[in-house]
Design brief:
With 584 residues, the chain is of the alpha+beta class. Helices cover 39% and strands 9% of the residues. The chain binds a DNA duplex (16 and 16 nucleotides) through α1, α8, β3 and β4. Keywords: Coiled coil, DNA-binding, Nucleus, Transcription, Transcription regulation. InterPro entries: WRKY_dom, WRKY_dom_sf, WRKY_plant.
Length: 584
DNA sequence: CGAGTTTGACCCGCGC
DNA sequence: GCGCGGGTCAAACTCG
């Protein structure tokens, strides 16, 4: 058999073979975290492609509609309105990270209205049933919210940690970091790679197992708190780590908190089905007990067996493949993200003179994670890296930041676009957008564009509106900011006003519905992932700080080379090439 | 010689 | 059904 896939050749045992059930969801979701405003045209272009604009438009439309419908409040549509409210609430909560109040809100609204307006028993009964229904919905939403919140928390935590790390590094002179600094933006080269790691995933709501899988795994490691590491040597950066997961920090020297990845990478869309057999099928015996090693293995490629997932998470089912793309300026062919990659292909993408390179994670056999690297057509200094899949193995500390960040982003997207219920993907997007958008900054944008929704993290520029300049985030400040954001009431107005307004809701909903319709393919919603204004900046800064500029592998040792930047300056800035984005 | 890259061919989904 | 384009494979090649 030819199963000798490159993997086999390399060193991967077949056992690790990722078996991807062909049934894997073909859909992809891509999340884009944008950050550059200043990025200028390049960034703008990119966003445009994504369709961010649409998103905003939608918002406006919603508002308008809301105004119009405003008068209708109290009308027979109460119920619907309330429903909307729920949705909105979710958004709010998400932003606020508070959950649990929506119920009351909803109830209040409903009950009061109902009482006032429904006189006949029949009507009352009806109303009640409605309420019940709403409550259920509310629950669902809550779940979603929880998920999102968790992810958000994770991100924050992570960022915080990074920041702290960085800070300590500067001030205290933390011991080594390995990441190379991005020449482009980091003047002080403070990139430090956090040698410590925090487990985030756990934050996930305890009752939301799936959540974890969705988000956390996306990038892999992220999350999960590994119990074992909690005691680490480093002072916990922040304790507010994700809710219950405590942030466990460990000296990262070499240990990696291995997340509990239950991975099931199985899914993996993979369209080239034909080939699958070689890779995964190759392993004849494959039942590799996926065991996740506890510690991080040395730099050499650990051949761990694929972590075993006792429970095949239904992830495949729920999770559409999420794609997270990161835009960063780097002359280096590839940004170092701490992982090891092997190039398995290169192609010229249509519309972009720069070739697109395909990489596969080689840190573990069978790791389904892949990434595409491509330079922007217009701005060759910008490298767009798109990640896909979840690592099924522990990640080195160096890889954690990126991994968790992307994971969180993806997970957010995913959670927002749960196909379940009546929420369609689009709806989810809207929801997310709503939740996040308010802040206007464009660090993170979510695009639900056609083929696959995408999340993009744009690190090309320092955040515009972000109040946290990357240069030197004060940990204290940061914490304060985050805490503030976390406060339930933090920006009530921002959200409350707009979102809560029942009238707007209807508008919103309409928009949401409309989206799917036209968007079937092009509708894209862009949203900032954080409701916290600081968030974007922080996140970007954090990531940026550890993204090495050189392919030489600052930390991970990715040896891949990215497509050489075609010297030709992109004459036409007609399109930006977002790897996960395709223009069809 | 092993590990990784190069590169043309192949597969597959999608739009026309 | 056909062609296009994205994504992957895998033999050949390069490098240390």
């Amino acid at each position: 058999m030819m199963e000798s896939s490159y993997l086999g050749k390399r060193k991967l045992n077949a056992n690790g073979a990722e078996r991807e059930p062909s049934g894997a969801p073909a859909g992809f979701q891509a999340v884009v975290l944008g950050y550059d405003d200043a990025a200028g045209e390049a960034g703008a272009e990119a966003r445009r492609v994504v369709g961010e604009m649409d998103f905003f438009k939608t918002e406006k439309r919603k508002e308008e509609a809301a105004d119009r419908s405003h008068s209708a409040a109290g009308a027979p549509d109460d119920l619907s309105i309330n429903k909307d409210d729920l949705t909105i609430n979710m958004g709010l909560h998400v932003g606020r990270r508070k959950s649990g109040s929506e119920e009351s809100i909803v109830d209040d609204g409903v009950s009061s209205n109902e009482v006032d307006h429904r006189e006949t028993k029949a009507e009352l009964a009806l109303a009640k049933s409605e309420i019940g229904r709403l409550n259920e919905e509310n629950k669902q939403l809550k779940n979603m919210l929880t998920r999102v919140t968790t992810n958000y928390n994770s991100l924050q935590m992570h960022v915080l940690t990074l920041m702290q790390h960085r800070n300590s590094h500067r001030g205290l002179g933390a011991p080594g970091h390995e990441l190379s600094v991005d020449p482009e933006k980091d003047q002080d080269g403070s990139q430090l790679l956090p040698r410590q790691f925090i487990s985030l995933g756990t934050a996930a709501s305890p009752d939301e197992p799936p959540l974890r899988s969705a988000g956390a795994d996306i990038r892999g490691g992220d999350c999960s708190a590994s119990p074992s590491n909690t005691d680490a040597a480093m002072p916990p950066p922040v304790d507010y780590c994700a809710g219950k997961g405590n942030a466990a920090t460990i000296s990262s020297k070499d240990v990696m908190p291995l997340p509990t990845f239950d991975h099931h990478h199985h899914h993996h869309h993979h369209r080239g089905g034909a080939h699958e057999r070689d890779q995964r099928g190759s392993s004849p015996e494959d039942p590799p007990p996926h065991h996740v090693p506890q510690g991080w293995l040395p730099s050499k490629v650990p051949k761990f067996l694929p972590a075993k997932g006792p429970e095949p998470v239904p992830e495949a089912a729920t999770m559409r493949k999420a794609r997270v793309s990161v835009r960063a300026r780097s002359e280096a062919a590839m940004i170092s993200d701490g992982c090891q990659w092997r190039k398995y292909g290169q192609k010229m993408a249509k519309g972009n003179p720069c070739p697109r390179a395909y990489y596969r994670c080689t840190m573990a056999a069978g790791c389904p994670v892949r990434k595409q690297v491509q330079r922007c057509a217009e701005d060759t200094t910008v490298v767009i890296t798109t990640y896909e899949g979840n690592h099924n193995h522990p990640l080195p500390p160096a890889a954690m930041p990126m991994a968790s960040t992307t994971a969180a982003a993806a997970s957010m997207l995913l959670s927002g676009s749960m196909p379940s219920a009546d929420g369609s993907l689009m709806a989810g997007s809207n929801f997310l957008a709503r939740a996040v958008l308010p802040c206007s900054s464009n660090v993170a944008t979510i695009s639900a564009s056609a083929p696959f929704p995408t999340v993009t993290l744009d690190l090309t520029q320092p955040g515009p509106g972000a109040q946290q300049p990357p240069p030197r985030p004060d940990p204290a400040q940061l914490q304060a900011a985050l805490a503030d954001a976390a406060r339930p009431v933090a920006l009530p107005q921002l959200f409350g006003q707009k979102l809560y307004d029942p009238s707007k809701l209807s508008a919103v909903q309409a928009a949401a519905k409309a989206a799917p319709a036209d968007a079937g393919d092009t509708v894209s919603a862009a949203a900032v992932i954080a409701s916290d204004p600081n968030f974007p900046a922080v996140l970007a800064a954090a990531i940026k700080s550890y993204i090495g500029g050189s392919s030489s592998g600052g930390g991970g040792g990715s040896s891949g080379t990215v497509p050489p930047p075609p010297a030709s300056s992109g004459g036409d800035s007609s399109r930006d090439d977002k790897i996960g984005e395709q223009d069809s």
